[in-house]
Structures are given as C-alpha cells and as structure tokens.
What we know:
By secondary structure, this protein is an alpha/beta fold. The protein is about 30% helix and about 25% strand.
Amino acid sequence: MSTLLTVISVNDGKIKRxxxxxxxxxxxxxxxxxxxxxxxxIDSKASEIAEQLKNYxxxxxxxxxxxxxxxxxxxxxxxxxxxxxxxxxxxxxxFPSTESSKDVLGALAANQQTAALSxxxxxxxxxxxxxGKRPVMASKIISSVEAxxxxxxxxxxxxxxxxxxxxxxxxxxxIDFNFSDEELQITLKEIISSSSDRVDLSExxxxxxxxxxxxxEEGRNLISELASVLNxxxxxxxxxxxxxxxxxxxxxxxxxKVVSPQLYIGVAISGAIQHVAGMANxxxxxxxxKDPDAPIFDIADYGLVxxxxxxxxxxxxxxxxx
Length: 322
Ligand code: FAD
C-alpha cells in the first residue's frame, strides 16, 4: 500500500500548525485513494512530539530522535530524511513551507534523484506523482504544476488547508539513526533568537499589520494593544521595516513573510502588490485606511475608512468587552 509521508515541523517542542494542515490533507488523500498517511518527526524529543500527533489521525508515526536535532542543521536533517525515505518508500514526501523545509527540500530531491514542487497552495495525486497550484510573481499568477517521480517531494504554504482533528491509534516506530561529529562539518557558533514574546507571525491565527500611516510611538502602542487584545501576531509593511520601526523579521510580503491567518487586519497599509503577495491568502481581511481609494480595499472583506488614531482606541475598547 502506498504511503503519503508528512514531515512534521517542530518549534520549541511544539508542532507547527502548518504541519498539521499538510498532515490533514494527506490523511484525506490517503483515505480517498486507499493509501496510508504517515507522519515523520525528526527532533531531539521526537517521541514526546509523536504522542501529540495521535490527535491528528495519521495511520503511522515514525520518529528519528537524536540530540543533534536540537537546532536545525541541514546535514543531519538531510541524512535523517534520506534514511526515512529509504525505509518508508513513500509516494509523496510533503513538508509545510517553512524556512527549514526550504533549506532541505531541494537537497532531498537531488539526493533522491527525483522532482520537487515547492510552496504549493493546493495539491492532489496523479497516477505517478502530484499535481496542484503554485502562486508565482507575487501571487499575480497561479501556475498549475505537475511532477512525477518516486517519491515526489513537495512543500505546502501555510493556511492552504484546515487542520482536522482525528484520533489515531497508530504505533510509533523509531527509525535507527546514527550520526557522528565528523559527518557534521559545521560548527554552530551562536543562535540569536528574537527577544519577542509575541505570537509567531507565520503561525498566528490573527495578524495585525502596521503600515506607513502608523507614524509614531502612539500608533505603535495602538498596534500592540490591538494585537494583545486579539492574541495576534504583529506584522508590518516594508515601509516600516525599512524605517527601522519594526524588525525586518516582521515584514509581510514578497520579500518578507507569507502569512495566511484566519483574520488579517491591515492598519494604514495601502495594499501595494508586493505586500499583498504575503497576505492575500488570509481568510478574512480587514483594512483600516483614511484613503477610500486605497487598493487594499479591493481585496478587503471589511473596510474602515478613517484615521487610525481615531478608529483604533474605541475599536480596542469594544474588543476588550468581548
Ligand atoms: P504606503 O503605500 O505609503 O501607504 C500608507 C497608507 O497609509 C496609505 O494608503 C494612507 O492612506 C494610509 N494612512 C496614512 N495615515 C493614515 C492614518 N492616520 N490612518 C489611516 N490610514 C492612514 N512592501 C511590503 O510591505 N512587503 C514586501 O515584502 C515588499 N517587497 C517589495 C519588493 C520590491 C522588489 C519592491 C520594489 C517593493 C517592495 N515592497 C514591499 C514595498 C511596496 O511596494 C510598498 O512601497 C509598501 O508596501 C508600502 O507600504 P505601506 O502600505 O505601509 O505604505
């Protein structure tokens, strides 16, 4: 029986929502096509994480546990993936589209001498591979793509599928893996992590994004307050990351992060194509802008025309009452 293998992405001991989205889609495809859906966890605490996966319906769960995976280093992860693929022999290897999957997707495909399709927004099976859609040119064009091979390696944009909870009584199988220091050839010198205790932008269910009209500390405080009330991640347009008002890691768009939350609130953002490329997949888009002709209103589900400094304080007060 063929297997669809989802590679689970983990951050600080927590499964990333985007992995569960991919797993849910693989579960659906497997059950519709008489196949098995398997999940693979490569982590320093893989067996603990594997237990959590039993709430999300895979038929099989594989782990590769080793202290070397405490930090993402390409070489051991690639070796672990190759080991797992040789053992499981899946038809498809599916990753969530993350910084770390970007790092290994192409290398794994080269290693397996097979095809890779990255950053897909939907995917389905064909007789000998995968087909689907892939946004390109800042999401102006949705290309149809298809690849055959064994396995086909894909990555899937976050927010493309819903997470479906489903109990599973899958066995957890540990895959043998050895890795010596000599194989590493890399020395990890330092990790500089963001000091923010905010919700991770790429995983956030709600995103509040600030644009150039947020011009001073009062405006930034309003953005923080709105984000706190909604338990939202904070993002920004390039106008504000370039001005140094927000960290570059918070930039949303073509040259920043791609987000696809349930709710995106753009505050004083005009809706330039390069920004829209990073948020167009949001489920519900709310725009606050004083210019009624701002392009962001063309894609917004709800629009508030007016000055953010007048709109946000009562808006936040009302939200606090909920
Ligand atoms: P503006 O376009 O200046 O819009 C500000 C908006 O705020 C206006 O609509 C105005 O009406 C409104 N406003 C002002 N004051 C108020 C107020 N008090 N209350 C309410 N509304 C108010 N941009 C990105 O964001 N992400 C990217 O990844 C990105 N990549 C790029 C890549 C390239 C190659 C290039 C050329 C550009 C890129 N840009 C990117 C820049 C992009 O083209 C825009 O310049 C940028 O998105 C504009 O940011 P903004 O909407 O905040 O500012």
